[in-house]
Model the fold of this input.
Amino acid sequence: MILTVGAGAVGTTLAGYLMAAHQPVRLLIRDRNTARCQSVAQLTVDNALGSAPLVVPKPELTTKLDVSGVDYLLICVKHAALDDVLLQLPATLPPGLTLVPTLNGISALPRIRQRYPADRVANMTVMFNAQLLSPLHTHITTKPLVIIDSADPKLLGLFDNSNMRVIRADGHATAWGKLLINLANPVCAITHTSFRDLLTQRDMRAIYAAALDEAVGLLSHAGIPFQLPMPLPYKFFRQILLRGGPLSWWIAKVKNGIQEGSYPSMVVDIEMGRKTEVDQINGEIVALGHAQKWPTPINDGLVNLVRSLEGNPSPAYLRPSELRARLRI
Done:
């Protein structure tokens, strides 16, 4: 049995592909969402590239975190909900149970491994972008891909024949690479823009490149390896980003399947007045910079600007040129 904790965009999408792979899936939902989820007859994932939606039977629903008979527990929540999940888990995991966190950033994994043996925790880096449209209905705006840091063949084969591509990782380099890509999220959130805007507008590209340069320099200084999701050296990726004209957007569309109008979840978090995960993304760079005595003014500025927008019913978005000027880029 696979227990997926969290029925948001990521959890619902993963549950859909697991159902398509004919896996036994139980989806943990919140009590307040029970009636709405029960009223839905099936789980639907609208796919990228205009392909037919993935429509599968509704998985078993539960409102209690019971790990009895569970082989893999996918933790698909935001960082703000992680403490609550950990409090509900037993102090000692049942034999055969593996925890599979899917959270953004790199801070969740060491927290979980402090409590449980490292060989009982396998990190999954989610490389797709998904949006929750309604209960048990998501829209995936990129090609479906996950990267799993595990040698467990059963775990690596959970999505077989479902069209979800799985890549095996070895170590944290992939997670750091995903974090670098996610440094764009606050740029879009502060300006209320899409991925296409990020990759086609001059000011947006300059801001993103500055945040990346700062972070890559810090990681190199700290001796931390990273692997970008695309098979390109960072210097080449940077050149394409800044001087490639429409090439970077073309690569995002053709290679990653990203669609027009797609945007980071942080954009929605600001719209809905929710706390974001900026501390676990750009904030990770800021924290590492403090530890390494390495300046991170760009990422620090992005973190502070996002915090100023959180919980505001009428957020004061900045134009890209205003954000660039504010960050002195």
The chain is about 40% helix and 15% strand. The chain has a mean pLDDT of 92.
